[in-house]
Design brief:
The protein has two domains: about 80 residues, Ribosomal Protein L15, Chain: K, domain 2, CATH 3.100.10.20; about 200 residues, CRISPR-associated endonuclease Cas1, C-terminal domain (Four Helix Bundle (Hemerythrin (Met), subunit A), Up-down Bundle), CATH 1.20.120.920. The mean pLDDT is about 90. The longest helix is centred in the middle third of the chain and has 25 residues. The protein is α/β, with parallel strands linked by helices. It has ten helices and eight strands. β3 and β4 form a beta hairpin. About 40% of the residues are buried. α6 crosses α10. The chain has a four-stranded mixed beta sheet. It has a four-stranded mixed beta sheet with strand order 4-3-2-6. One of its GO terms (biological process) is maintenance of CRISPR repeat elements. Pfam families: Cas_Cas1. Homodimer, forms a heterotetramer with a Cas2 homodimer. Keywords: Antiviral defense, DNA-binding, Endonuclease, Hydrolase, Magnesium, Manganese, Metal-binding, Nuclease.
Length: about 300
């Protein structure tokens, strides 16, 4: 079954959301100002000034739509998600918990290598130097990345990508390029949550990310290879131009998740597939985790 991909963002609007006949209706003072078909939705972002009816919450979860509650910065602080209906959920959760250290390390090494190769392609795509240097680093990644080649690559990558702006990557920042990255990564994480839960996996049991306060460690592992595609979309935006928070800018970042990821597949579809492959990997059905590599921009399917 095809899965929705659209994002409904009402974090900055004093609106109410209700459910009517297969769609979410966005209302102000009882008047409908927007509609979104549930079959097309993937993520709904709501803020402190938004209200959502119980019927809308139930309908959204029945349609596998992730609802993320965001603070004043637009950073998610909670959420509502559909329970997985896969028949493998119990077996996969137990297999995740019992996954051996060598297999965890092997999976993480493959994720890191794919991410760094994607970063190299991002630099190539926007005409920056450093792609070959990153490819050399990617080829040196060992199981578990004990030398932290990911960190080395990140320092080179961010300096080459946005160094001309005196950029420093600061997660959670509400300023400039960081704000754009944080918003786009929030959307990406929402898609990742759906993919992991749909695969019958526990989002808490990661292969590398294991923060005690992080309920989505595995999601943060799974989205790493997809970040370079999002970075490319952010790099297309002029941070000096007015209206950085304009709807058109947010639409551009949301649509980045529809970017082609090779072989005629889009980013969100490939993320779903990766989560399913990881499920088979933890259950021992495959010996190695096949992690996709973003190899440069393809067409983005706009949400009209």
């Amino acid at each position: 079954m095809a899965r929705g991909w659209q994002v409904l963002d009402v974090t900055s609007s004093p609106v109410s959301i209700r459910h009517r006949r297969g769609e979410l209706q966005v209302c102000v003072d009882g008047e409908i100002v927007g509609r979104a078909m549930l079959a097309d939705l993937a993520v709904v972002l709501i803020g402190a000034r938004s209200s959502v009816s119980g019927g809308a919450l139930i309908a959204a979860t029945e349609h596998d739509v992730a609802i993320l509650m965001c603070d004043w910065r637009g950073v998610p602080v909670g959420g509502a998600y559909a329970w997985s209906n896969t028949t493998r959920v119990g077996a996969r959760n137990r297999a995740q918990a019992a996954l051996s250290a060598p297999r965890r390390k092997n999976a993480w090494g493959r994720v890191v290598r794919a991410k760094i190769l994607g970063q190299a392609h991002t630099l190539d795509a926007i005409g920056r130097s450093g792609g070959n240097e990153l490819r050399d680093i990617a080829n040196s990644v060992r199981s578990g990345d004990p030398e932290n080649r990911e960190g080395l690559a990140a320092r080179i990558y961010w300096q080459r990508l946005f160094g001309h702006e005196e950029f420093s990557r600061i997660p959670g920042s509400a300023e400039g390029r960081n704000a754009l990255l944080n918003y786009a990564y929030t959307i990406l994480r929402g898609h990742g949550i759906r993919a992991v839960l749909a695969a019958g996996l526990s989002p808490t049991l990661g292969v590398f990310h294991r923060g005690r306060s992080n309920p989505f460690s595995l999601v943060d592992d799974m989205i790493e290879p997809f970040r370079p595609a999002i970075d490319y979309a952010v790099a297309q935006i002029d941070v000096e131009a007015p209206g950085m928070d304009a709807p058109a800018t947010k639409k551009h970042l949301v649509n980045a998740s529809r970017m082609g990821f090779g072989c005629g597949r889009i980013l969100t579809t490939e993320m779903d597939s990766l989560a399913q492959r990881f499920g088979r990997y933890v259950e021992g059905e495959v010996a190695k985790l096949d992690v996709p590599v973003w190899d440069g921009p393809e067409e983005v399917i706009d949400d009209e």
